[in-house]
Amino acid sequence: MVDEALLPRRGLGFxxxxxxxxxxxxxxxxxxxxxxxxxxxxxxxxxxxGDQLKVSERVWAQLSAASAERLQESVSVLANDFxxxxxxxxxxxxxxxxxxxxHGMRIDADVALLLAPDGAVQVSxxxxxxxxxxxxxxxxxxxxxxxxxxTGVAMLDARPFLMAVVPVMAPRRVAWAAxxxxxxxxxxxxxxxxxxMDVVFVEGDGAFVRVLASTLPDAQTAALRLNREAARxxxxxxxxxxxxxxxxxxxxxxxALMSGRQVQVMLLADLDEALTPYHRLRDQILWxxxxxxxxxxxxxxxxxxxxxRPVQRLADAARRIGAxxxxxxxxxxxxxxxxxxxRVFNGMQREIGQREARIRFQATHDDLTGLPSRGxxxxxxxxxxxxxxxxGRNCAVLILDLDRFKEINDALGHAFGDAVLTGVADRLRAxxxxxxxxxxxxxDEFLVLLDDADADAACERARQLARVLETxxxxxxxxxxxxxxxxxxxxxxxxxxxxxxxxxxxxxxYEAKQQHVRVLVYRAGDDEHHxxxxxxxxxxxxxxxxQQFRLVFQPxxxxxxxxxxxxxxxxxxxxxxxGDVTPDEFIPLAERSGMIRxxxxxxxxxxLRQAAPWIADxxxxxxxxxxxxxxxxxxxxxxxxxxxxQMHGVSSRSLVLEVTxxxxxxxxxxxxxxxxxxxxxxxxxxxxDFGTGHSSLAQLRSLxxxxxxxxxxxxxxxxxxxxxxxxVRSAIEIxxxxxxxxxxxxxxxxxxxxxxxxxxxxxxxxYLFSRPLPPDAFVDWCTxxxxxxxxx
Length: 792
Description:
By secondary structure, the chain is α+β, with helices and mostly antiparallel strands. Helix content is 53%, strand content 22%. A hairpin with a 2-residue loop joins β3 (150-156) and β4 (159-169).
């Protein structure tokens, strides 16, 4: 069969219709031309104005220099006049004032001054404030003192004047003569007549300017005073200013220094007027461009009639696909480019339909396990609750979380962890009923939705699922034992909406994990407890940085010598928000948040730092620190302990690390490896809470431990005739037979102490001797205890 796509095409074809593209190109070209002309015109105008502004600045320099020179010569003539000098020398003030006035009028001066040698005003023609005149003229007098004469700008009565100052000699200096021209409207208009631009004399005033004189109209002058951009021009930047509907290019430069302030000459070139010829050219180009676009539109309509119909079919097909219809295909007629496009479009439609089906499945299911996802499960739960509400039935949510899954991921890798999750999903899928929903919420959390189940039935189903996972998994020649914590919440007893029911089942699961039970039903008040835990976890991240942790120390007494042999370092946490938080509460939170590693290292470091001088002084022989389950899978812990021992100068035999039976049994192989590495360094190891775990004697024998601590639950009631004495006796005998030291913790009464002595227990620890104490209090207690024992 001949492929139709390869047959020669008949008719005009799509290439003939490409003319539409050229029409669009024409429009683009017109727009680009208009933009280029506009940019070039504005650039040319600005360059021309920039040149004019620079030339105008030079003109001002020449005008200012000529004015200063003229003033200097005129005032010198006055100062050299014999009659004027005689009047000044003889303090004939009326004659001097008349001479000063006549001379000022003759040279068209705006102000004339006769100043005493110390600068005091003797005669003032023009300025009214003599004190302000003295301050304003002081810089010019200082310059004249140094150079014999001076010219510059001074502010007299809040107005700027170009002043010339010379001494009056008779034959010594008897006074200063000064005349000046006002930097005012007349000078600004004269300067504008020369350069053809508006002129403004300004003085900087923070974010705005102070206008001293202006050739601008009143409206523009008022707008200039309030324009923040004008202040930038005073700082030396060329800026554009919009003043009351007119646009100006502004350029400012210094007129002269005056009394620590500066008068600026601001030149304003009218941009609107300069651009007017170019705006007319732009309008002409716009008319031509509009005509060209009109012609192009007519051609586009004519050409588009030939291709509108097939393109419309493609548009209809696209809308149909957008609406979700992937079954109807486009008819294919002819062998031109549009026919090829229709064929490709049909193929694309099929692929989109298949891909959307896959996306819909992936959006509602987990990629790894194929189970429904959290979003899908939440939707099903909402519908189930609504149905249960209408029918007056119950429904229950089970949230299952795997214990130690993070340790499996860290120790064996994520690929192995994914295989474990897949195996768990397969087992749960086989164990749930057909009407139940099994979903993966994320990570190692799974959800089971039970329709028509009360709390008792839900707990029974949860225990069945927990037993399903107890059988070890064998993957890649590795056997892994798993346990799960399951939280249960029931509608309507615990919540009447899906989100709250799910959250409370999740809270129950975390409570089950913390209490080390398999299944736990949500209880009223757990919300507040959960919120407290969330708050504590947030504060825990900053507790080390804020130094909120502290150590207290409880002594261990050797029964044979009645000496304090070891001391156990115990961690305490005090927060401003919650006060004192017990280790039983915050240690599990630290393990869940991943903070336990940093906290353990802090405790090891701080305990060695505190105990080092006690050990060196012979007060104690060693210090004990507790480890968590996660510490035993920390491969870097032995190296860290070795570094801290060297840093604090403490022998490794003086450090005792205590681990619980439950801690060791969570990952026996990893724990055994870490403990052997610590033992090789000489660190002593102790099994804490002995008797409460699930270890066998064979497993205990394989661990490199030096001592065991009998749990306080067996010691507290030892003197009350309970059966705990049998357990304690057996534990002591087992420890001694294995060559281990035996310590009893929780000793609170003399009767219990007497029994432990009779059973040859090695060491004891408890409130009978001392509560956990701060460092200073422990030293005082220990010194006092040793003295009492020596006296006894």
